[in-house]
What does this fold into?
Amino acid sequence: MASVSANFVCSRTSVRLPNQMITSKSLRLATVGWGRTPGFPRLSSSRFQISCAAKKETVDKVCEIVRKQLALPADKEITPQTTFTDLGADSLDTVEIVMGLEEEFDITVQEDNQDNISCIQEAADLIEQLVANKS
It folds into this structure.
């Protein structure tokens, strides 16, 4: 009997240049195959999340600041993988979020680093790196 199979791999990776962490945001894998059993194909899917080790407290604080800056309701779910765009933020909102983070954590985010922040996890990772470098 003939056999048909297919694989699908999707990976989103963020690489930062000198003095910055390398992060892999997600990896998704799906496989489809027809074996000896007639009828519908077999489908299996897995999703792996890999992220840098920003402390939960830092991620929670970033979520709180983003919620405040965007005036989001308390029941709006925000996860480390949530992007600012997903929350309806435009470029001005993102600048205001970064300013709020700078004030809260007493850090300065360089303009080139601001362009690398698109989600909660990336913001938390950068904050921890800047705080560590400051010490």
Notes: Residues 1-32 have pLDDT under 50 and may be disordered. The CA atoms of residues 31 and 134 lie 46 Å apart. The chain is about 35% helix and 25% strand. The beta strands are 4-15, 22-34, 42-49.
